[in-house]
């Protein structure tokens, strides 16, 4: 069940329902998709075991916990040299895992190496993160920042 083709119409309907509300009961999902609650449960378990459903989470609005500024940072790393015992990308990837401000990190093609989504309280918090953490990292050569003015669309759901 690694490909989209392995999912049937009912699996996709169950996934859409769970993406809309991960706490929905199997009774309600069953009514929506035309299955019994026990059949929904079996399918959900199969989707979990196959890794189609990765995990369940609570989505927290950053502003509601004092994190009102979101920025996207394009990061360029230095290239590997003989003086490094480890590849700069490996060192950077390990460091990113420890930075709570970084809520998403993607490796990119093109001019920059990584795109970070950073969520912070305000400009002072952002400045501290950049000056005391990101730019002090030995693998980071350069970064460019864009600040989010307005969230036009934000979803965690993938089109199934």
UniProtKB/TrEMBL annotation:
Residue span, HTH asnC-type domain: 7-68
PROSITE patterns: HTH_ASNC_2
Annotated TM spans: none
Residues spanning the signal sequence: none
Keywords noted in UniProt: DNA-binding, Transcription, Transcription regulation
GO molecular function: sequence-specific DNA binding
Family matches, as InterPro entries: ArsR-like_HTH, AsnC-type_HTH_dom, Dimeric_a/b-barrel, Tscrpt_reg_AsnC-like, Tscrpt_reg_AsnC/Lrp_C, WH-like_DNA-bd_sf, WH_DNA-bd_sf
Gene Ontology process terms (BP): regulation of DNA-templated transcription; response to amino acid
Coiled coil: none
GO annotations of cellular component type: cytosol
Protein name: Lrp/AsnC family transcriptional regulator
Organism of origin: Simplicispira hankyongi
Lineage: Bacteria, Pseudomonadati, Pseudomonadota, Betaproteobacteria, Burkholderiales
């Amino acid at each position: 069940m690694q490909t989209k083709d392995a999912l049937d119409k009912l699996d996709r309907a169950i996934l859409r329902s769970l993406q809309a509300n991960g706490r929905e009961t199997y009774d309600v999902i069953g009514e929506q998709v035309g299955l019994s609650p026990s059949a929904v449960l079996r399918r959900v378990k199969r989707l979990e075991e196959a890794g189609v459903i990765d995990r369940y989470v609570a989505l927290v609005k950053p502003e509601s916990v004092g994190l009102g500024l979101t920025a996207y940072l394009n990061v360029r790393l230095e290239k590997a040299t003989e003086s490094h015992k480890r590849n700069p990308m490996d060192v950077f990837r390990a460091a990113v895992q420890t930075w709570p401000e970084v809520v998403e990190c993607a490796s990119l093609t093109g001019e920059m190496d990584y795109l970070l989504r950073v969520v912070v309280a305000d400009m002072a918090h952002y400045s501290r993160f950049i000056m005391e953490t990101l730019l002090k990292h030995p693998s980071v050569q350069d970064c460019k920042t864009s600040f989010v003015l307005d969230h036009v669309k934000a979803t965690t759901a993938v089109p199934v």
